[in-house]
Amino acid sequence: MTTLAPTSLALPADWRDFLSLTKPRVMSLVVFTGLAGLLAAPGAIHPVLGFTAILCIAMGAGGAAALNQWWEADLDARMKRTAKRPLPSGRMRREDARDFGLFLSGASVMVMGLAIHWLAAIVLAVSIAYYAVVYTIWLKPRTPQNIVIGGGAGAFPPLIGWIAVTGDITLMPVLLFAIIFIWTPPHFWALALFVKTDYAAADIPMMPVVAGERSTRRQVLGYSLLLFATALLPWAIGGTGAIYGLSAIALSAIFVALAVPVGLRERTGDGDGSQPEKRLFKWSILYLFVLFGMLVVDRMVLS
């Protein structure tokens, strides 16, 4: 079994290792959806304050990611796709990652509260705790429903961005939260299907490991269909115009079309056998970027 390099032998970490702790690729989606929520919200916010709000969302997400890696360092060392991260590779001391994560998390909430307002800060704090504690410590090692329940962790940014402008919570930002919440299971389980051996090696009860591929595939398809309906709700309640609505139909139809071959397969094969899962996973990332981008375009055209 692979274990962490001894802390005393850890190499000096540089800025790239600290940046890696924030999971910048994941953060880019977090920042974008937060920005989309901010730009789509009714009303206006001073550009400096808007930038500050998005910076706080990014810092909070980065801090939560650092705390996640601090807690899961031993698990990361047992998985091929995470073994080269700063902690399992021995390039950084665990306490440094912990302190970095706590600093980013605390600073993001404090600045959000002082510069914007405290409702946004409270929701940001809840999102950090949701990911770093509820998902990482409680859900992930205990239940195959970890992604379903834990999906809320990544769904907060557009809600926070909206609150930063309006100062309140209405149905529309809750629906934006719901879209990401429903999007998370098919997105993540598509990945889990072709890296399930990693999760099995680390004894993490991801759905494909615990419930099997067939059940996971059916749920990927089921959640994809649910996502189609959920993505249309902002248009259905009159919160957006046809630009968003028609985009949501087209984008979600492609999502479902890519989920069908995943859902109907019995198992992930060797070689190119995981291509349907990989196609769905890649599209799911582009899907969220374009969908929330169209939300902003729709708002700008209508305003």
UniProtKB/TrEMBL annotation:
<feature type="transmembrane region" description="Helical">
    <location>
        <begin position="100"/>
        <end position="133"/>
    </location>
</feature>
<dbReference type="GO" id="GO:0008495">
    <property type="term" value="F:protoheme IX farnesyltransferase activity"/>
</dbReference>
<comment type="function">
    <text>Converts heme B (protoheme IX) to heme O by substitution of the vinyl group on carbon 2 of heme B porphyrin ring with a hydroxyethyl farnesyl side group.</text>
</comment>
<feature type="transmembrane region" description="Helical">
    <location>
        <begin position="51"/>
        <end position="71"/>
    </location>
</feature>
<dbReference type="Pfam" id="PF01040">
    <property type="entry name" value="UbiA"/>
</dbReference>
<keyword id="KW-1133">Transmembrane helix</keyword>
<keyword id="KW-1003">Cell membrane</keyword>
<feature type="transmembrane region" description="Helical">
    <location>
        <begin position="243"/>
        <end position="264"/>
    </location>
</feature>
<feature type="transmembrane region" description="Helical">
    <location>
        <begin position="285"/>
        <end position="302"/>
    </location>
</feature>
<keyword id="KW-0472">Membrane</keyword>
<dbReference type="GO" id="GO:0048034">
    <property type="term" value="P:heme O biosynthetic process"/>
</dbReference>
<keyword id="KW-0808">Transferase</keyword>
<comment type="pathway">
    <text>Porphyrin-containing compound metabolism; heme O biosynthesis; heme O from protoheme: step 1/1.</text>
</comment>
<feature type="transmembrane region" description="Helical">
    <location>
        <begin position="26"/>
        <end position="45"/>
    </location>
</feature>
<dbReference type="InterPro" id="IPR044878">
    <property type="entry name" value="UbiA_sf"/>
</dbReference>
<feature type="transmembrane region" description="Helical">
    <location>
        <begin position="159"/>
        <end position="183"/>
    </location>
</feature>
<keyword id="KW-0812">Transmembrane</keyword>
<keyword id="KW-0350">Heme biosynthesis</keyword>
<dbReference type="InterPro" id="IPR006369">
    <property type="entry name" value="Protohaem_IX_farnesylTrfase"/>
</dbReference>
<dbReference type="InterPro" id="IPR000537">
    <property type="entry name" value="UbiA_prenyltransferase"/>
</dbReference>
<protein>
    <recommendedName>
        <fullName>Protoheme IX farnesyltransferase</fullName>
        <ecNumber>2.5.1.141</ecNumber>
    </recommendedName>
</protein>
<feature type="transmembrane region" description="Helical">
    <location>
        <begin position="220"/>
        <end position="237"/>
    </location>
</feature>
<dbReference type="GO" id="GO:0005886">
    <property type="term" value="C:plasma membrane"/>
</dbReference>
<dbReference type="InterPro" id="IPR030470">
    <property type="entry name" value="UbiA_prenylTrfase_CS"/>
</dbReference>
<comment type="similarity">
    <text>Belongs to the UbiA prenyltransferase family. Protoheme IX farnesyltransferase subfamily.</text>
</comment>
